[in-house]
């Protein structure tokens, strides 16, 4: 199977070489890799150049977006810039973060998943992060059928059906909900261990604290589902302020008429799907 990879990179000199090393060592190599150098001020561009010289399937794209590391919008905007230089001659497309180490057989396995079942729209492995003691431990706060935003792989049919990625906090939740809305399956493979070199959320700006609630509004969760989802997040993070911030972000977005990410039919599906899962866990 043919696949393309887009890697948004902003000041990633500490990790990018390791990520690209793991990409060029894949048992099934990508047809094209676009590394989007998003206004980096460190040695990121030089690292990209060292790979483009050696590998003709790797391309550099320089672009500039906001200097703020806001979850969702910055990385997705950079991904979209990379997407613009690619054609549609792929079987699946990958949004890959610049701070990962993939196992050598990663994309061979992902390709096999898509090949075996044409209903699969989204596939991926699992994130492991290094503990202070040095061991690599699973970091997967969501359900096991969730693919982390760091390494999303979409079939072309699914990617087109969901309309690509949303430049917003919640993009890596709404994509999976729309994937299911359009009848695609999501497959995760626990044998695919991906090392994440930067702790999750480390670079997020303080302004991001209201964006989770805003995202719930934009996904048409409604008030009750927003309360339930936010309370669950607060309990999991052991921070009561999460619930307060989420609700504040939700009502602020509603008051300001922030554009929604999904239409009415998609919103109804999302609410029903979420409530069904809640009922399954309760009963």
UniProtKB/TrEMBL annotation:
InterPro entries: Glyco_trans_2-like, Glycosyltransf_2, Nucleotide-diphossugar_trans. Pfam families: Glycos_transf_2 (PF00535). Keywords: Glycosyltransferase, Transferase. The keyword Phosphoprotein does not apply. Residues 5-142 form the Glycosyltransferase 2-like domain. SUPFAM superfamilies: Nucleotide-diphospho-sugar transferases. One of its GO terms (molecular function) is glycosyltransferase activity. Belongs to the glycosyltransferase 2 family. This is Glycosyl transferase. It comes from Zhouia amylolytica AD3. The lineage of its organism: Bacteria, Pseudomonadati, Bacteroidota, Flavobacteriia, Flavobacteriales.
């Amino acid at each position: 199977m043919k696949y393309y990879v887009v890697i948004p990179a902003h000041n990633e000199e500490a990790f990018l070489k390791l990520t690209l090393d793991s990409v060029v060592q894949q048992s099934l190599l990508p047809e094209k890799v676009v590394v989007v150098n998003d206004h980096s001020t460190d040695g990121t561009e030089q690292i990209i150049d060292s790979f483009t010289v050696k590998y003709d399937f790797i391309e550099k794209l320089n672009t500039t977006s906001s200097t703020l590391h806001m979850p969702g919008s910055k990385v997705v905007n950079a991904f979209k810039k990379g997407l613009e230089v690619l054609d549609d001659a792929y079987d699946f497309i990958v949004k890959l973060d610049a701070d990962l180490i993939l196992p050598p057989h990663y994309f061979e396995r992902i390709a096999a998943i898509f090949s075996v079942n044409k209903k699969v729209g989204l596939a991926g492995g699992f994130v492991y992060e290094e503990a202070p003691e040095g061991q690599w431990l699973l970091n997967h706060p969501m359900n096991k059928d969730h693919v982390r935003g760091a390494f999303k792989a979409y079939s072309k049919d699914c990617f087109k059906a969901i309309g690509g990625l949303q430049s917003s906090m919640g993009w890596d939740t709404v994509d999976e909900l729309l994937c299911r809305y359009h009848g695609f399956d999501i497959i995760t493979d626990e044998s695919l261990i991906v090392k994440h070199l930067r702790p999750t959320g480390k670079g997020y700006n303080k302004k991001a604290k209201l964006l989770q609630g805003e995202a719930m509004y934009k996904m048409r969760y409604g008030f009750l589902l927003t309360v339930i989802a936010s309370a669950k997040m607060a309990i999991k993070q052991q921070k009561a302020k999460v619930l307060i911030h989420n609700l504040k972000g939700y009502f602020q977005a509603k008051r300001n008429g922030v554009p929604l990410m999904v239409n009415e039919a998609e919103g109804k599906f999302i609410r029903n799907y979420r409530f069904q899962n809640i009922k399954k866990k309760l009963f």
